[in-house]
Amino acid sequence: MLIDLKGKVAIVTGAGRGVGRTIARTLADEGAIVVGTDIRDDLLEDAGAEWEQNGWPGAHLLCDVRDKTQCQAVADAAVERFDRIDILVNNAGVAGGGPVEALAEDDWDRNLDVNLKGTFLMCQAVTPVMKRQRWGRIINAASFAAIIPSLGAAAYASSKAGVASLTRVLAGELGPSNITVNCFAPGMIPTDMNRFADADPARQEALLDTLSLRQWGDPVDIANLVCFLASDLASYITGAMIDISGGKFATQMPWAAYRKER
Ligand SMILES: NC(=O)c1ccc[n+]([C@@H]2O[C@H](COP(=O)([O-])OP(=O)(O)OC[C@H]3O[C@@H](n4cnc5c(N)ncnc54)[C@H](O)[C@@H]3O)[C@@H](O)[C@H]2O)c1
């Protein structure tokens, strides 16, 4: 096995559903001990049942990433129960908002607090442990919105651009401790967050037209990247934002390649 995560202890935030649930499941499948966290206990209960059924080691803990005390409690629990923290995946996220002129302050705060401050607080909670170990992998969920934002997404895009910047600063600060820090920028993966697959067919076609590969992403695509970044194979990658969008706007008009084919 090239990617060997056996015995590594991983914390995954927002692990109750969607991309985070698949990341947690894939890490567990690769042998990691996964501490999955989420703000919703119904989702955690469901994930816990899956872990039990598969005999995967780990734990499921309630945590609102906006709360410093709760983030610290997760890090403390991971060390108490499993002795170390090797991998942190800051996946928990929210979206929504609207055009700047009409954007509610609460929506701005929610995006910034969960996506950016939550990532910062979790990084702060695990960093002393990883430094003591002189080994760690921090992997943050950015978004294609940090590369090219959508109209009406000021709050979300600003938070994700912040995640990209935080990732680079932290990579510099933690390099001497042999801790890598990277982020990933997905394009469009249908989940409960966005319901892309439920959009009307014309809108779906228009969205798919922006992708060189012309297909939705799958949570497994992200999980595979996370496993790679968490492994020894990626030990020389840090401070990177990896575009995992199926080639969204890799060229100016990706749809033209498909029109030519018809
Ligand atoms: N799906 C996509 O196309 C896409 C694209 C770009 C980036 N992303 C990013 O990937 C990550 C996962 O997205 P998803 O599509 O699976 O979304 P999702 O809404 O399905 O899952 C997000 C999870 O985060 C949890 N969460 C929300 N607020 C929280 C909080 N305060 N504390 C702890 N947990 C909280 C939710 O309960 C949920 O389980 C997000 O950071 C998102 O911004 C997703």
* Helical proportion, percent range: 40-55%
Looking across the biggest beta sheet, what order are the strands in?
3-2-1-4-5-6-7
Percentage of residues in DSSP E strands = 5-15%
Mean pLDDT: 97
What does the radius of gyration come to?
18 Å
Largest sheet: 7 strands, parallel
CATH architecture designation = 3-Layer(aba) Sandwich
CATH top level is: Alpha Beta
Shape: globular
In sequence order, what are the helices and strands, one letter per element? EHEHEHEHEHEHHEH
What compounds are bound to the protein?
nicotinamide-adenine-dinucleotide
The name of the CATH topology is: Rossmann fold
Total DSSP E strands: 7
- Residue runs with pLDDT of under 50 for 5 or more positions: none
Distance between the termini: 41 Å
Helix/strand-derived category reads alpha/beta
Give me the number of helical elements: 8
- CATH superfamily descriptor: NAD(P)-binding Rossmann-like Domain
Please indicate the count of domains.
Answer: 1
